[in-house]
């Protein structure tokens, strides 16, 4: 009788990494929960949607996709890695100004899927090539000057806030 061999694991992955296709959406949702209050849907001075803008990354000196640790260093923190999966890597930065998340993706389409999932929460995000920074809207502009990218406003679900 022949015995069935157990499946061979790739040496590229560790057992703690996420392996399910739905894990990307779940990770995105879980990552955004602490930021619900930090990423409100701000508007520009006229009350309209703030226009996204793109700049080069003068401080970074790079345009290529970066690692969580590189982006964290450019923003002045050392990130604690919270998620290290095939679909994304995410680090938490804790600074005197605020806590914020840096998420990187191996492919652009995974970043867009993550952003689509984040749309339910609304808010503003700094978005670059295969990376997203989730922070208080007041910090995003200073990060954009260091990292480049585009500030994107995502519309949440439910009624628009008044005031």
Structure overview:
About 25% of the residues lie in helices and about 20% in strands. The chain is an alpha+beta fold and about 160 residues long. The chain has a 7-stranded antiparallel beta sheet, with helices on both faces. α1 (about 25-30) crosses α3 (about 110-120). The longest helix has 11 residues, at about 110-120. It is globular, with a radius of gyration of 18 Å.
Could you outline the blueprint of secondary structure elements for this entry?
Elements: H1 23-32, E1 54-55, H2 68-75, E2 80-84, E3 89-94, E4 99-104, H3 108-118, E5 123-128, E6 131-134, H4 137-147, E7 149-154
Antiparallel strand pairs: 1-7, 2-3, 3-4, 4-6, 5-6, 5-7
Helix pairs in contact: 1-3
Tell me the major beta sheet. Answer: 7 strands, antiparallel
Number of helices: 4
Q: In total, how many beta strands?
A: 7
H/E series: HEHEEEHEEHE
Radius of gyration: 18 Å
Helix content: 10-25%
Shape: globular
* Sheet with the most strands: spatial strand order: 1-7-5-6-4-3-2
* Stretches with pLDDT under 50, minimum 5 residues: 8-64
Mean pLDDT comes to 72
End-to-end gap: 75 Å
State the secondary-structure class: alpha+beta
């Amino acid at each position: 009788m022949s015995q069935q061999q157990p499946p061979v694991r790739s040496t590229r992955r560790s057992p703690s990494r996420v392996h399910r296709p739905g894990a990307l959406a779940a990770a995105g949702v879980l990552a955004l929960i602490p930021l619900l209050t930090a990423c409100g849907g701000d508007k520009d001075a006229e009350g309209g949607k703030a226009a996204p803008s793109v700049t080069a990354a003068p401080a970074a000196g790079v345009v290529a996709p970066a690692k969580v640790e590189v982006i964290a260093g450019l923003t002045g923190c050392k990130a604690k890695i919270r998620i290290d999966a095939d679909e994304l890597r995410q680090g938490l930065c804790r600074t005197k100004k605020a806590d914020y998340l840096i998420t990187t993706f191996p492919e652009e389409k995974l970043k867009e899927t993550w952003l689509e999932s984040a749309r339910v929460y609304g808010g503003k995000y700094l978005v670059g090539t295969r990376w997203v920074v989730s922070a208080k809207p007041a910090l995003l502009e200073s990060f954009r000057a260091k990292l480049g990218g585009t500030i994107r406003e995502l519309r949440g679900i439910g009624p628009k806030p008044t005031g």
